Amino acid sequence: MEKTSPKPYQLQPWLRLTILTTISWGIWGSLMEYPEKFGFPATLGYITWALTMIPCAYIAIKRGGKKINMGIKPIIIGCSAGFLGAGGQLMLFSALTHGPAYTIFPIISLYPVLTILLSTILLKERTNGSSWTGIVLSIVAVLLLSYQEPTSTTTVGHLWLFLSCAIFVMWGVQEFLLKLAQQFMNPESIFFYMMISALLLIPVALSMTNFSSDINWGLRGPWLSAAIQCLNAVGALSLVNALRTGKAILITPLTALAPVITIIISLVLYGVVPHPIIITGMALAIIAIFLIATEGSKAYLWSFSLIRRLLRF
Fold first, then answer.
1. Mean pLDDT of all residues in the chain?
2. What is the pLDDT of residue 154?
3. Is 5 inside a domain boundary?
4. If we measure between CA atoms, which residue out of 106, 101, 98 comes closest to residue 155?
5. Residue 279 belongs to what domain range?
6. What is the DSSP letter of 71?
7. Total domain count for the chain?
8. Neighbour tally for 52: CB within 10 Å
9. Which of 14, 103, 190, 202 has the most CB atoms less than 10 A away?
10. With 0-12 CB in 10 A as exposed, 13-18 as middle and 19+ as buried, what is 302?
11. Alpha-carbon separation of residue 118 from 8, 176, 180, 222, 247 (angstroms)
């Protein structure tokens, strides 16, 4: 019996999951500020995110039919990845109160560089020339997409710079550990330990919350926040599953391009034309996505096939 090769326009599973992560995080990024505008602090938004991890973990474990991997290595690696990701979010809240966002975000946005270096050196991940071109373009695109207009924000010492660099390292190492963890446990277990880590940091988020100010406890507060934060949790779950078969050096730069989705949605909602620097970043992001996708999914063949079909009409 002859083996049927997959059609050239079929995306590989890791790429489909990566796209799902990018879209989920992009939509989440465009909506996450609404609860805070309505009087629900971002630190409490962290708590709703941690709680939304619970149903996602439950569904993933039940649907996958997998047992939670126990042992020293799974627990240490899984929880380390979780604490680095969740702890980075909490540190970001503090960094933004001490320094300018237009400097903080560009520093943090370069975390894929660290993930790529660690994955290349320690995991020996390799790819082809076009994908490396896409990776480099994606890094440049992420840096441009993080551009913000300079403001008169008053900086307090150099704490914000230290925190920004720390978050850069934490998030870069986190995604490396998420890939490394695939050697010791199933994706469901990885996500379970990420959930546990996020929940354990809830007291830290509570201590950072200013309860003396008015807090919206209505539908536009915790409930709206929970609905939006579900997108963050779903994105994290699909990321973990994407790393099961995909390379971190390809997946990390693609998910870092989520701001493209955020900018497009914000453009529709607010009708504000992005800065030329951001538009340039979006253009580079599209090229980067195309080049990286060709590594394993033959997306370029799919594109040519689609063009030929359109020309027939």
1. 86
2. 56
3. no
4. 98
5. 13-312
6. S
7. 1
8. 23
9. 190
10. middle
11. 31, 7, 10, 38, 12
